[in-house]
């Protein structure tokens, strides 16, 4: 059984595309601000490298390692964030990832060894990557296709500004204070962004418009249709065996075990008459497979 669904125009409750322009633009601003943090975090450390090497102490190779790990994780973690957001929604992912980023920034700011810096820079990278991964998806939730081009252009200004502004802020803060100041700055900016999402951002995700959700739901419905077909075949076999009481008894014992053991028992009812209910797609390892973008999933 296969069902073709136009997820782009699927009617949903509290449709984000029906929101007022002001409400949409507020969401756009908050998401853009979150995506800028990723670029800031990547480059804000550069002006303070010499101070970090002297105070921690650390070698240039260790500092380079922290930057390399940051870029590696920030580039790979979006696979996980984006997959989970297609099941759990956008807001929860934003809040969880920014909270992780804040924790990483604070620990880096108070670190006394390069090992802690490297480890929690990795945590920073994982937290900062979510906005990059699902920012465009959030705008697709809110804006109709004909207006997405303009809004995407505005949105992508933020992550491009981050790498340009990061060294500037890093240099000013390091010169005025010390190498820890840029990381405290990141923690404060991320904290304000976290509050913005918590107070002013309403989740835009609607599972009816999620391709991942629809694929999982189709798979569950196909499985249920197969179970129904098996039950019907069982009933047909039983009817055909009624002329032979012994065969009927064996058929009933065997088929009840094979076909109805997974169905809920209802007192006073024939298990073979139970009709499966409509399946509901739930979060699973298969549904959030981070390699789904490389492998054809059905």
Please provide a written account of the structure:
The protein has 298 residues and is an all-alpha fold. It has 2 domains: 17-205, Growth Hormone, Chain: A; 207-262 and 270-298. The protein has 10 helices and no strands. The longest helix has 32 residues, at 145-176. The two termini are 12 Å apart.
Report how far the terminal alpha carbons are from each other. 12 Å
Strand content: under 5%
Q: Based on the coordinates given, report the CATH architecture of the largest domain.
A: Up-down Bundle
String of helices and strands: HHHHHHHHHH
Low-confidence stretches: 259-279
CATH superfamily of the largest domain: MFS general substrate transporter like domains
Q: Structural class of the secondary elements?
A: mainly alpha
Q: In CATH terms, what is the fold-level topology of the largest domain?
A: Growth Hormone, Chain: A
Radius of gyration: 27 Å
Question: Which CATH class of the largest domain?
Answer: Mainly Alpha
Helix content: 55-70%
Shape: globular
Overall tally of domains: 2
